[in-house]
Write a structure and sequence with these properties.
about 550 residues; alpha/beta; FAD/NAD(P)-binding domain; Cholesterol Oxidase, domain 2; 9-stranded mixed sheet
């Protein structure tokens, strides 16, 4: 098989890119995805994420683990990643967050020309079909439906009002470039009549409507093993499907969209990266590129949890189970009920020190008790609040465990390697507990879990090292830039290679101050236009 473009990975970036490139009927595109179609009821039903996220069993989920983390008392961290068309947008909390304008201006200052806020904003708008319509910051007719929450709990409003009582301003929109404040997340959820209340993954938004195009071939259950080359030029991909190897060839480009773990792993399996990461596994070097797999950044997350007498939230009880049946029935009829929840309903972007130019922590207020990624269950009802460090200083790596392409990558986030990350998290936890103890939220609390009384910094540190883990935003392992550690240039072309690009969250030179799904889709929108523009230029 031969196509103009071969795309590896059908996640948020790959789904977007495949749909955009195949809009031209004269362009042929093949998309390889290791998982399934991503269109099951489990994916479409927002609350069903509780069945997929824990990774027990692995449903639409790679369910990776890190190596033991010294900063987390030697614990292995959990790293769920989506394994289906739509990728992690098929199993995430659907939160639509762009980050702060200065995050992108910082990319531009690092040598990523054309990636400042004003330059990327049109691509956010192009992607977006906002329930409120278009304005100077939002799009109204893009593929990705962005909605207000369908039926947030009263508990979440109590969280917002508790923040307001502490002089934190309420924000109606966290996506206008300046996101400080407290309020509700918008979500990637359908608001049209046919699918109202269903998850709008990147696949549902972009790819599923395009599957009938004769110039687009999507191959699911196809695990990429290595990139094929002629010299320094990428010519195709070797993949496995049903225990048999196949080749698919690219006339123009091979484009990696595997994300922050799988894209560097595939480069290394193909002989591109640092010799010390590749040759010990018996893999022949193709091209030395020292930045591959370096610069891993992720949002470390610490969770406070509380039990409530109130049962108007997700919990484990007989009355809660009976109420859930009613919620399911209402959701099927109207798209509105607790089944439509993102779980993380309440949002806050806050500064832990007054002199900061941007918020340095993010809160996710969750209408259930969350312990170990929902893998440990607690009887009764309650809520949680997640605190994450928005711009961590710690840097980790992604490498190979072996030459076996079916083996998981070696993931080392190096959490809390930098002391400043711990201090920000401690300050953020104290700020969060102030909100939890303020009215009207305090009236809901029956008991705080895990923490007794008012802990000192040393006690909080113990809790953080014992319980903190990722909130699922790994980036940076194929970073964009012009310096020696850059893997791709600002056009996302792999440096020193031909006909090879990386288009996913791995190209972010620095982690943005927020959730990473919307920015990843933006990156793919911009990449599609750059690729189409380069083809048009070559034809002149």
């Amino acid at each position: 098989m031969r196509f103009d473009y071969v795309i590896v990975g059908g996640g948020s970036a790959g789904s977007t890119l495949a749909a955009r490139l195949s809009e031209d009927p004269g362009t042929t595109v093949c998309l390889l995805e290791a998982g399934g179609k991503g269109d099951s009821l489990l994916v479409r039903t927002p609350a069903a994420v509780v069945a997929m996220l824990p990774g027990r069993p692995k449903i639409n989920n790679w369910a990776f683990e890190t190596i033991p983390q010294a900063g987390l008392n030697g614990r292995k961290g959990y790293q769920p990643r989506g394994k289906a068309l739509g990728g992690s947008s098929a199993i995430n909390a659907m939160l639509y967050v762009r980050g702060h304008a200065k995050d992108y201006d910082e990319w531009d200052n690092l040598g990523c020309d054309g990636w400042d806020w004003q330059s990327v904003l049109p691509y956010f708008q192009k992607a977006e079909n906002n329930e409120d319509g278009a304005d100077d910051c939002h799009g109204g007719d893009g593929p990705l439906q962005v909605s207000h929450q369908k039926a947030p709990r009263a508990l979440t409003e109590a969280f917002v009002k508790a923040g307001e009582s502490l002089q934190i301003r309420r924000s109606a929109d966290f996506n206008r470039g300046e996101n400080e404040g407290i309020g509700y997340y918008q979500v990637t959820q359908f608001h049209n009549r046919q699918k109202n209340g269903e998850r709008c993954s990147a696949a549902a938004a972009y790819l599923h409507p395009a599957l009938s195009r004769p110039n687009l071939k999507v191959i699911t259950r196809a695990h990429a093993k290595r990139i094929l080359f002629q010299g320094k030029r990428a010519t195709g991909v070797l993949y496995s499907k049903a225990d048999k190897d196949h080749e698919v060839l690219a006339r123009r480009e091979v484009i990696l969209c595997g994300g922050a773990f799988n894209s560097p792993q595939l480069l290394q399996l193909s002989g591109i990266g640092r010799p010390e990461d590749i040759t010990p596994h018996g893999i022949e070097m193709r091209h030395e590129l020292p930045g591959v797999g370096q610069n891993l950044q992720d949002h470390l997350d610490f969770v406070l949890a509380y039990k409530t007498r109130d049962r108007d939230n997700f919990g484990i009880s007989l009355p809660g189970g009976l109420a859930l049946i009613k919620h399911i029935r209402n959701w099927r009829k109207t798209g509105r009920s607790m089944i439509a929840t993102p779980f993380a309903e309440g949002a806050a972007f806050l500064k832990t020190e007054s002199g900061l130019e941007r918020p340095d922590i993010q809160l996710h207020f969750v209408i259930s008790i969350v312990d170990d990624h929902a893998r440990k269950l607690h009887l009764g009802h309650g809520f949680s609040c997640h605190i994450c460090v928005l711009r961590p200083k710690s840097r980790g790596t992604v490498g190979l465990n072996s030459a076996d392409p079916m083996a998981p990558p070696r993931i080392d986030p190096n959490f809390l390697a930098e002391a400043e990350d711990l201090q920000v998290l401690i300050r953020g936890t104290r700020l969060c507990r102030q909100i939890m103890q303020a009215e009207p939220l305090a009236s809901y609390v029956k008991k705080e879990l895990f923490i007794d009384g008012e802990p000192d910094d040393a006690t909080l540190e113990q809790h953080i090292r014992a319980r903190a883990d990722t909130i699922y935003h790994p980036v940076g392992t194929c970073k964009m830039g012009l310096d020696d550690m850059a893997v791709v240039d600002p056009e996302l072309r792999v440096r020193g290679m031909e006909a090879l690009r990386v288009v996913d969250a791995s190209v972010m030179p620095r982690l943005i101050g927020g959730n990473t799904n919307a920015p990843t889709i933006m990156i793919a929108e911009k990449a599609a236009q750059m690729i189409q523009g380069s083809v048009a230029l070559a034809a002149q």
